[in-house]
Amino acid sequence: MASPKETIQRRAQRVRRQLKKVAGARPRLSVHRTSKNIYVQVIDDANGHTLAAASTLEKDLKGSLKTGADTAAAAAVGKLIAERASKAGVKEVVFDRGPYIYHGRVKALAEAAREGGLSF
């Protein structure tokens, strides 16, 4: 029987494998969440570079948020990543939710990034 860590890694790889089939030349918007914070990166897999990144640990966000572990914080990070990605010249991405269900904080981040101008 697989350990919980192996199961999570397998789920993330399954999601990523499906994304690579449909991505084309679009960069990947990768989400990582913990019990206290949420992190997001726009990654160019062809070159292996991070084009933009944002998290709830950043100084300007940390002071204005009550906690880094709620949907309001995820929405703030989503708007910030959309702004930074547009500065980097990225308009279209592929959303990589990793092993996380598209619900709650992950969904709030995705919707805020869409409102901020990212297309996926």
From TrEMBL:
Q: Which GO terms describe its biological process?
A: translation
Instruction: List all Basic residues biased stretches.
Output: 11-20
What is the recorded function of this protein according to its Swiss-Prot or TrEMBL entry?
Answer: This is one of the proteins that bind and probably mediate the attachment of the 5S RNA into the large ribosomal subunit, where it forms part of the central protuberance.
Q: Where in this protein does the record put region Disordered?
A: 1-27
Instruction: Identify the domain of life.
Output: Bacteria
Q: Which family does it belong to?
A: Belongs to the universal ribosomal protein uL18 family.
Q: Which GO terms describe its molecular function?
A: 5S rRNA binding; structural constituent of ribosome
Gene Ontology, cellular component aspect: cytosolic large ribosomal subunit
Protein name, per record:
Large ribosomal subunit protein uL18
Q: Which organism is it from?
A: Mesorhizobium hawassense
Task: Write the signal peptide boundaries.
Answer: none
